[in-house]
């Protein structure tokens, strides 16, 4: 009898868990989306589940935003508004310890795909370093951050190619350097590192079939065209739903 009771309890737990998951998914899709955006294989890297039973996409943001030659993407006032103590100048001898002691914080970050901020950063990097950026081709570039998601949505309302996500961020001091024959001088500054965003996206049927037949899973270095484009609809909980997949 106890055996059957245990089996019944386990079955009930599975049913309840499945119901909660379905309700959560339905609530996420209800109402207007927080973003609808189309990304390429450069921003969404194709991987397989460890048991090879499913297809996953891994969201990649551009590494360019923290290149030492690129402009800081968020001004000091914006960093302070996230709750970081920016009272110590980044060139101060106390700066490294001061900022290292500050814990990472949760915030909302607005990313833009290949927009003006990305282009400015790319232009600031010299040619040899720019060639190295191809190892991470993503053009998903941070442009703004706030503790209040609605403020960000209001700032970027109606602007295409912008994705707002919950994130974990950390402040970093960067010391000044003098001009040389190959680089301009740079004053000391604060920069904000994006150390975590929701990144794993499960690809359901029928969209997963498009990925299973791909001859390669990563774009060759000499290829000018991404392998695929994926349209994502982000719901009220900032969880994505795939609505279209295009394979050239």
Can you walk me through this structure?
With 248 residues, the chain is an alpha+beta fold. The protein has two domains: 29-60 and 200-248; 61-198, no CATH class. It is 27% helix and 28% strand. The protein has helices at 2-29, 76-80, 95-100, 116-124, 127-132, 149-155, 208-212, and strands at 35-40, 44-48, 55-59, 105-113, 140-146, 162-174, 189-196, 200-203, 229-234, 240-246. The protein has a four-stranded antiparallel beta sheet with strand order 5-4-6-7. The protein has a three-stranded antiparallel beta sheet with strand order 1-9-10, with no helix packed on it. A three-stranded antiparallel beta sheet has the order 2-3-8. The longest helix has 28 residues, at 2-29.
How far from one another are the termini?
59 Å
The geometry reads as: globular
Radius of gyration: 22 Å
Q: Which class best fits the helix and strand makeup?
A: alpha+beta
Please give the domain count.
2
Give the averaged pLDDT, no decimals. 85
Helix content: 25-40%
Helical run tally: 7
Task: Characterize the largest beta sheet: strand count, sense, and whether it forms a barrel.
Answer: 4 strands, antiparallel
Could you give the order of the helices and strands? Answer: HEEEHHEHHEHEEEHEE
């Amino acid at each position: 009898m106890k055996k059957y009771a245990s089996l019944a309890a386990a079955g009930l737990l599975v049913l309840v868990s499945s119901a909660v998951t379905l309700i959560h998914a339905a609530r996420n899709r209800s109402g207007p989306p927080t973003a609808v955006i189309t990304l390429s294989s450069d921003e969404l890297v194709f991987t397989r589940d460890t048991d090879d039973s499913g297809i996953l996409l891994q969201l990649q943001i551009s590494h360019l935003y923290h290149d030492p030659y690129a402009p800081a993407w968020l001004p000091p006032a914006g960093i302070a508004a996230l709750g970081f103590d920016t009272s110590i100048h980044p060139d101060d001898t106390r700066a490294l310890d001061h900022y290292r002691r500050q814990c990472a914080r949760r915030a909302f970050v607005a990313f833009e795909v290949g927009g003006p901020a990305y282009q400015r950063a790319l232009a600031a990097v010299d040619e040899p370093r720019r060639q190295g950026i191809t190892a991470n081709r993503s053009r998903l570039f941070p442009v703004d951050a706030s503790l209040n998601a609605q403020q960000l949505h209001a700032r970027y309302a109606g602007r295409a190619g912008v994705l707002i996500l919950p994130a974990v961020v950390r402040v970093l001091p960067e010391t000044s350097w003098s001009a040389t024959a190959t680089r301009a001088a740079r004053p000391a500054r604060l920069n904000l590192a994006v150390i975590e965003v929701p990144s794993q996206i499960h690809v359901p049927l029928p969209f997963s079939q498009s990925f299973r037949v791909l001859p390669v899973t990563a774009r060759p270095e000499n290829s000018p065209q991404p392998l695929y484009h994926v349209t994502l609809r982000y719901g009220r909980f900032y969880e994505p739903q795939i609505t279209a997949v295009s394979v050239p």
